[in-house]
Amino acid sequence: MNLSQLIRTNFIIMALLFAICTNSLAVKEPVKETLETARKQFYAAIEDKKQIEPTIKIFQRIAQLEPKYAGRTQVYIGALIALKGKHAFFPYTKLKWSKRGLTIMDGGLEKNPDDIEALFIHGTTCYHLPFFFRRSDDAQRNFKRIIKLMPQHTDAYHPKLIKNVVEFLLENATLTDNEKAYLRGVSHQKT
């Protein structure tokens, strides 16, 4: 074996070792902790447009590492893209980003329509949109779906998240008296 073949072989071996090490580190990355960080950055991005792109990257990374979160992360990404519309200066640009984000959010919700967190992000985003988007019915449908899913699924989510969902629904959703009573009961269980 000549010197150039030896160098080439060593390079290939090094590249394979690097790929194996990088992949094993990525798998070991604590996805739930990364998701919690991404959530915090999402709320920061609502007020600070500089946080939008880095937060999108984090959600994309989560989707790669844990495919079961693909629908949820897509909803978050869509909401972040819609936020670009909030921060844009020109009305056309605002509309363009908002519509693009809504389309992405809708696709994410289709992937996992029983994900309470995805329903909440989709619903609250639709709730806060101006009336001409005609998404308030979507928001209320999401809120009703969350209430329907809660009895079977609340233990799968962090209690703080459920508490925030319940508080938002009690303050902003159109609810029946029975739904209000149920949510107040959930709220007392989570405190």
Question: Could you characterize the architecture of this molecule?
Answer:
By secondary structure, the chain is mainly α. The protein has two domains: 1-112, no CATH class; 113-191, no CATH class. It has helices at residues 3-28, 31-47, 52-65, 70-87, 91-111, 116-128, 136-153, 159-172, 177-190. Helix 4 (70-87) runs parallel beside helix 6 (116-128) and helix 6 (116-128) packs antiparallel against helix 7 (136-153). Mean pLDDT is 84; it is low at 2-28.
Keywords:
2 domains, 9 helices, disordered N terminus, mainly alpha, 191 residues, single chain
Blueprint (SSEs and pairs):
Layout: H1 3-28, H2 31-47, H3 52-65, H4 70-87, H5 91-111, H6 116-128, H7 136-153, H8 159-172, H9 177-190
Helix pairs in contact: 2-3, 3-4, 4-5, 4-6, 5-6, 6-7, 8-9
The pLDDT mean sits at: 84
Instruction: Figure out the total of helices.
Output: 9
Give a short account of the largest sheet: none
Helical residue percent?
A: over 70%
The total tally of domains equals 2
Strand content: under 5%
Structural class by SSE content: mainly alpha
